[in-house]
Request: fold
Amino acid sequence: MSPKSSRLTRKQEARSLRRAVLFGFLTVLLALALVFLGIPALIRMAIFIGSLRSSYAPVETKDILPPAPPSLKPLPEATNKDQIEIQGFTEAGTTVEIFLNGVPKQKSIAEADGSFLISHVKLNRDKNEIYATATDQEGNTSQKSGILIIYFDQTPPELTINEPVDNSTFYAEEKVIRIQGETEEDVTITINDHFVIVDAEGKFNSSFTLSEGENKIKVVAIDKANNQTEKEITVILE
Reply:
């Protein structure tokens, strides 16, 4: 080999060695940068990206507002039936619960138009106070509705006919007679299907025109619960 070729070979080997040392140094430097700078940077970048994404994400808000109290349809003042149905309106889809004298009784889901109907609500004897609440799907419960009061009464009203006496006889000059009697407060009286006035004490007094011969007089007392008492007397016009 010539001296010139030996020098070229030695230069190339020296150049390759320098290149290998440089690559080795860069590799170590990169590893150190990854250890001391790369991982924290990656973590900071991940946090930044996460916060950036969360700032654009929709915020979920929980409904904490209760629905409005239900509105109940009026009930009769009294009834002689031991069960009733309750109707009303509230927020659509809410669960309506009926309370009777403070005790929960039955539930129903309001329709799409907000209406609801609860059947077969069993009443207590005498006075019943009824109200309702509405609970939405998030569990928010409304205030109480207005209170309805209904009396459950199956006792027929008292009825007494004081005049005339049953099987009395009248004469032509007494064709128009007076029918007098008494009953309870707030009771309706009919005499042969005609309404007569009842005063605050339950007394009634009405004229009645007799026909010749036998006259049947039927007096009916009906209270607010629709209980009724019926009495019939017979008078004769000669």
Summary: The mean pLDDT is 86. The two ends are 173 Å apart (CA to CA). Residues 6 and 186 are 137 Å apart (CA to CA).
